[in-house]
Automatic annotation (TrEMBL):
The keyword Ion transport does not apply. It comes from Aliiroseovarius zhejiangensis. This is O-antigen ligase. Residues 423-432 have a biased composition (Polar residues). InterPro entries: WaaL-like. The chain crosses the membrane at residues 29-45, 52-70, 111-129, 165-183, 195-221, 233-253, 310-337, 349-368, 374-393. Keywords: Membrane, Transmembrane, Transmembrane helix. Residues 400-432 are annotated as: Disordered. The lineage of its organism: Bacteria, Pseudomonadati, Pseudomonadota, Alphaproteobacteria, Rhodobacterales. It comes from the Bacteria.
Amino acid sequence: MFLGTVFLISLLLPMRIRLGPLLLFPYRLWLLLLFIPLLIALLRGKAGPVAFVDWCFFGAAIWAVVSLLANHPLGVIIEPAGAHTIEFLGAYLLGRITIRSAEDFHRMVRIFFMIVLVLLPFALLEGLLHRPVLLQLIGQNGVAVDIGTRMGLRRAQTAFEHPILFGSFVSAGLGLVWYSYAYNRSAMRRLFGTFVIGLSTMLSLSSGALMAFAMQTVFIAWEWVLKSYKRRWAIFGWGAAAVYVLIDLFTTASPFHVLVRYATFSMQSSYNRILIWHYGTQNIWDNPLFGLGLNDWVRPRWMSASVDNFWLLIALRYGIPFFILVTGALVLLIWRMSRAQMPDPADRAARAAFLTTFGGVALAAGTVHYWNGVFSFIMFLIGSSIWMISGGLSQSSNSDQSIETDHRKSRRAAGLKFGDVTNARSNNRPKT
């Protein structure tokens, strides 16, 4: 976990290092140094067998380079192709190799929370004093961005490049902290952790971050209310589909337009995202195979070049095959993880933490773009969950098929497809 800890800390260092044609941030440099050893370790089976999900991400990384080559000369794409491969596949490999058990996962959550806790006072001062306190203290005031105030507060960015990135980073912690600390049987820690994550998210004043936090809250509340009902998440899925159909049938706007309208701070912001979706999808259909690469997308002159939709942008930039490989890998991961038998409460807590957090992050990605360090953090988080489908479960989860059968028949086994930790604890104290 030492390698992962260095990576998490390096995300907070807003320095830039020029290495030949590559512009490296500290986290990029760390991932570059580890890339080959991590790749060799995975191919040699050091982190369990290579899964189909792994091959999907390998294929996506290769396709991104092919897409860039199809759109630009080789000399132009060396830096962006290298940076994307490191941030995308390198961060995934780091999580894949260094997090191999529930104990590793819960330790990672504690380290993440300590980072958020350290950043909180600086975010609070930044919002109240209307200046980038932390960046000024470390002599990186040139990295600060001023995009105005909301609710009388400066949007906090702390050590990140933008308030959106700070908000996206800290908001991802709700599901992680809630379920990891629930497993550790500490109600006060869980409530305190929730408060810290919520306040930090609010100080970013980012609609995407607040949406991620809100969706995780909905998931947690649903799980808590219906934790004794086996089919609760099937009901949730069908219910969400029904709401989508009803909105489509009985409103003049599409469900996407309705979501964007209520997930942003202003009508101007929501209208801009709707236009981004309209013109962005048209660009994708015009360039379906290789996307646009680094080329500008076609839109009215008065529109900004910013694409505030992560899922849209990856298809726009690298083509539909890249989008299918990434989303297909994620759907397969979630499906296999949800169906895995996990009698051990530590494993179930880790699963609930990841699925809750990733659900919020994935939905918020429809209204915000993740880039640079936060993009790498999300890939690291995805990689840190693969042990749940590739032989990293506790021995109690794998040792005896009859035990799995007994649990599958019992309510306790049904108690956590998404997150029931409290109803299925063992009598043993956790090691983490």
